Amino acid sequence: MFGPTITRLVTALAAAGGLILSTPTSAQATAIGSTPVRTFQYSVGGMTMQVPTGCMFTHIIRGSGKKITYQNAGVDCAFAAALGTGFCNWRIDFTYADTDNRVYRTSRGTTHNECRIDPMRSNAPRTLPRYGKACAHLHVNGVRRVSQCHHITK
Asked: In sequence order, what are the residues at sequence separation of 6 or more whose Cβ sits closer than 8 angstroms to the Cβ of residue 103?
């Protein structure tokens, strides 16, 4: 009824499916999200700084359940934004909230007085006491400018 090519294909797919189903899976998860940084102006030392369109704030988180093994957030800019002066007096904070959206922990970053086009921060691994969400926030010159969050669920 089936030719030898079809029979071999079905056999190979069945064997591959068996391998996939028999391989133990770990509950590792990775979440990556980006949010556009809106254009804004701010003043530093009497100079007006302009952050143009073309920057994204990216937040990466890896782990399993409530255990976070890696977390990083930073800005990537393209086009004219990559040629600008960037972000002065910046810091990146990480916050953790429960399922009712109540923040129970904040990992406040260091304020960097230099200007960078690509601010970035990694956070130490940690185990969260509750499910909810983990967020990264970029502050520039003391003002929160952009946030990016991931839900932490079972």
From this structure: 95, 96, 97
Please report how many Cα atoms fall inside a 13 Å half-sphere around the Cα of residue 49, on the Cβ side: 19
Topology of domain 26-152, CATH: Immunoglobulin-like (2.60.40)
Q: What is the pLDDT of residue 64?
A: 92
What's the whole-model pTM score?
A: 0.79
Looking at residue 86, its pLDDT comes to 83
Q: Residues 21-37: what's their mean pLDDT? A: 69
Q: Any residues with CB less than 8 A from the CB of 3 and at least 6 apart, and which?
A: none
Domain ranges for the chain, please list them.
26-152
**What's the chain's length in residues?**
154
Exposure class string for 7-23: b at 16+ Cβ within 10 A, else e? eeeeeeeeeeeeeeeee
In this prediction, residue 82 has a pLDDT band, given cuts at 50, 70 and 90, of: low
CA distance 140 to 46: 16
User: C-alpha angle 116/122/125, rounded to 5°?
Assistant: 170
